[in-house]
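Task card 7
Instruction: Convert sequence to structure tokens.
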Amino acid sequence: MNAPTRIDIPRFATIEKAIGALKPVEPVYCLHPQKFKIAAQRFLEGFPGDAMYAVKANPVPQVLDLVYAAGIRHFDTASLGEVELVRSRFDDVHCHFMAPVRLPGHAKAAFEKYGVVDYVVDCDYELDKLIAETKQPQKLRVFVRLATQLGGALLELSSKFGTTPEEGARLLKRVKEAGAAPCITFHVGSQCLSPFSYAQAIEITRRTVALAGLDIAALDIGGGFPGPYTNNDVPPYHWYFDTIREALATLERPGLPILCEPGRALIAEGLSLITQVVLRKGDRLFLNDGTYGSFDELTLPGWNADYPNRVFTVDAKGRALPLPGEIKPVRVYGPTCDTLDVLPRPQMLPDGIGPGDFIVFDMIGAYSAAVRTTFNGFYPDNWVQIGN
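Output:
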């Protein structure tokens, strides 16, 4: 495999330096390599198993490269496209196809072309399709996904996927009878603020294993590890790892391979976004980015987290300086002509902010670049690196 093309992007010592040099009229994503390293080390040193990066959280090649450089070698790829993207950049990584529903032929291609052996099912149809496409079940680890509607996360992820312990036990038996290695997975929900949710989900796993009357070959505890956003009381990560470790002991399976699927927790802090104020009307601001661009996640039902922000103005010498002033709530709109293009909660900003000033939104690495659109002709795609 040829080495992937590395993307050369401008580098600056600080965000202030980037603003002063570029004075950008379009949004700019700022990568922080050191923050990627710190986030990866949390999992590489603290989690009792292998951490897979959930590619869906941010599939941009620049981000993938920094996740890889930070030491992550397992990737949660939920589509054939994500498998192809990751394997086109890295030879020495493991892709895991962790989506319970796959398009026809995609498991076959992932297995035969890329050697992917980990798959997820939560129903008979997908299990039958998987076995029929790969034709070599003895080489597969098949993870039965359990529903874990536990209420500890801002976004639940069990109403669409996952099954009951009783059905899960039956599927595990079918997996074993087919010749594949039976495994279990679950997802407690995105931005999970309760470490105890993982203990509850592992108890559901224990019950399912007991009902099946067999030993599982691996357990994937999913994602959900939170980002430290404004308005959210996020426990320390070691609380999650300690709780998970204690709960795993109840399975009485020392040496059981354990995986997890952090997306947000590996990349949220590694990306900031420079935006510019285009217009001010009273207590309303218009930015060059909005909910059709980098801010879509803020509009999700039940989502109350916000990105921390910093405000800068450029002086006569071209230097970016913090904008002083009393902090007040301001309604913030995006650049499109849609009235729905507005951040759902007022932002706390200096009262003197106006056109030409810059707002930096930190911790915006997850589900920003991943879900941006080209609506109305706007598409944020400028990148810089901050620091080494």
